[in-house]
Design brief:
Layout: H1 29-45, H2 54-60, H3 65-68, H4 70-82, H5 86-93, H6 95-115, H7 119-134, H8 136-147, H9 153-181, H10 186-189, H11 191-205, H12 210-222, H13 228-247, H14 257-282, H15 297-326, H16 332-356, H17 362-379, H18 389-403, H19 407-415, H20 423-461, H21 469-486, H22 492-534
Length: about 550
């Protein structure tokens, strides 16, 4: 990387003196990549592994089902708050030390979650677990960006991509298996050995590059001058946003006073945060969020693409297991197995994408990925109530083949042309886009599914009146069958009532099926709309280019 690429006209302050040669870690680069991916995989896994265990957690701790959902919400809120802060905190303590502190906090809090004797304590430890885990993904991506030269970043990001794309899909299956065969506490205990191994390997293999070391020294000379106002606004803003997204549909959105209050807090805090951070940049202070990155066209568009990727990835990952469980009667473990082949498809394709991103224009890979995902989702509109296990699994494989072409090229474009001193900020913001996109996608799925099911139920119900000829025929047929089958046990009136109940269940089932298809259509359209937007970015090949935008 040339010295010219290590300065930026939009930097908030002059970075430490750029090295004249490319820095190389002492350890093998691929050993570094595998080491930092280990803990990140477990952290992303924990965003979904507890979902299927909630009934067991509620029963084991004497809580209601609604109270148990705070086990998920608390983790997501803490995660959303720490993600954008990670780059700022790295400046004061060094990236390796920050990463190890996050792994240590994640491991200890995981152990405490498994030992928690009550729900309030479990929620408290989940907050700590989310805080520790929130710094892992952006730190790893920044470590990979500094460890590998631009031409090799695609291959490195492929390993990272496997972790952040496959882990949410594997989580429900693994969580269901552990809960059914062992105890729900083991979904937290399995993190402990991984954290120990990660700490040992990170201490031995990972090291900070010179620009990080110099930046930490500069900050130490100036003294610890934390931006507490920025911390407060960021925590309130993103914490409130995550709470609203997670609890909105459950509390009827703006029909709930608490959701309305948190929405106002979210919007006002984020507006004040932007104004405050721009002021920090003007006066030369280190901002918590480096908003000047959005002046670069490639980064701004990549941020949007990562948001939509998270929106559709997490949304569809929740949709398919929920569909086969509620509509087809699958168990939680079997539902997880439906999307597992898609994960294996991503694992097989990621290395190929990592190779291609160094050879061809990354924009074409991203465009193909969004187009392929959009087509796959439109093909999913063929789903019905008689669909087979194999058909659903292959549809997921088709969709996953497109997802594999998205994460690595988008990440490569995000870092292209960035000076090394900006890698932490780029990583923090792109991971924030993916996480918030995932939360929005999940909230969108739950809300639209409920609203559209009511809509279709009302529309279908209009055609099932007592005067409808087909309704009369069905009622007469079912009443006669029940009467003949039960003999004197069933009166004609009772048989008629049971027939009405059966038809109502069919009505609800089919209206819910139509609602699922509506949600899939929205995901497919969102993916398709991204294809032309991709070409507003400048050409990026092999991790180079785009630096001027």
């Amino acid at each position: 990387m040339s010295a010219a690429t290590q300065t930026s006209p939009i930097s908030m302050q002059a970075p430490a003196k750029a090295p004249t040669t490319v820095w190389k870690p002492r350890a093998n680069r691929w050993a570094v990549a595998l080491t930092v991916t280990l803990a990140t995989f477990m952290e992303v896994l924990d965003t979904s592994i507890a979902n299927v265990a909630l009934p067991h957690i509620a029963g084991g701790l004497g809580a209601s089902a609604d109270e148990a959902t705070w086990v998920l919400t608390s983790y997501l809120v803490a995660n959303a708050v720490i993600l954008p802060m990670s780059a700022y905190l790295t400046t004061f303590m060094g990236r390796k030390r920050f990463y190890m502190i996050c792994v240590l906090l994640f491991g200890i809090s995981s152990a405490m979650c498994g030992l928690a004797p009550s729900l309030p304590l479990l929620i408290f430890f989940r907050v700590l677990q989310g805080a520790g885990g929130g710094g892992l993904a952006p730190s790893e991506q920044a470590i990979l960006a500094d460890t590998f030269e631009p031409k090799d970043r695609g291959k490195a990001f492929a390993i990272y991509g496997i972790a952040v794309v496959c882990a949410p899909a594997i989580g429900p299956t693994l969580g269901g298996y552990i809960t059914d065969n062992f105890d729900w506490r083991w979904i937290f205990f399995i993190n402990i050995p991984v954290a120990i191994i990660s700490l040992f390997l990170t201490n031995r293999i990972v090291e900070d590059p010179p620009h990080i070391v110099n930046e930490v020294k500069e900050m130490q000379k100036k003294g610890l001058n934390l931006d507490f106002t920025g911390f407060f606004l960021l925590a309130i803003g993103f914490g409130s946003l995550e709470f609203v997204l997670d609890k909105g549909q459950e509390d009827d959105w703006f029909g709930s006073q608490i959701i309305t209050t948190f929405s106002v807090l979210c919007i006002s805090s984020l507006i004040l945060l932007v104004l405050w951070e721009m002021r920090q940049i003007r006066i030369g202070h280190k901002p918590i969020l480096d908003l000047t990155l959005f002046k670069r066209r490639n980064f701004a568009i990549a941020f949007l693409l990562m948001f939509v990727l998270g929106f559709c990835l997490f949304g569809s990952t929740v949709l398919i297991p929920q569909f086969v469980q509620s509509m087809l009667g699958y168990t939680a473990e079997r539902a997880g197995l439906v999307i597992s082949p898609g994960g294996f498809g991503i694992i097989l394709l990621m290395p190929l994408v990592g190779f291609l991103v160094a050879k061809v224009d990354a924009r074409f890979l991203v465009a193909y990925g969004f187009f392929s995902c959009s087509v796959a989702l439109f093909v999913m509109l063929t789903l019905d109530l008689d669909v087979s296990y194999g058909y659903v699994a292959w549809l997921r494989v088709f969709q996953a083949s497109g997802l594999a072409f998205l994460f690595v090229p988008i990440s490569t474009i995000s870092f292209a042309g960035m000076p090394p001193g900006k890698n932490n900020d780029v990583s923090g913001l792109t991971n924030l886009a993916r996480n918030i996109g995932g939360s929005v996608g999940t909230a969108f799925l739950v809300t639209v599914l409920a609203r559209r099911a009511q809509y279709h139920q009302h529309r279908l119900g209009d055609h099932l009146t007592a005067s409808t000829l087909s309704m009369q025929d069905q009622m007469a047929l079912m009443s006669r069958y029940l009467h003949d089958k039960g003999g004197m046990v069933y009166s004609m009136a009772l048989g008629r009532g049971m027939a009405q109940g059966t038809l109502m269940r069919q009505l609800i089932l089919h209206s819910t099926m139509l609602a699922y298809l509506d949600v899939i259509k929205c995901f497919a359209t969102a993916m398709g709309l991204m294809v032309p937007i991709v070409f507003f970015m400048t050409k990026v090949k092999g991790g180079r280019g785009g630096g001027g935008h």
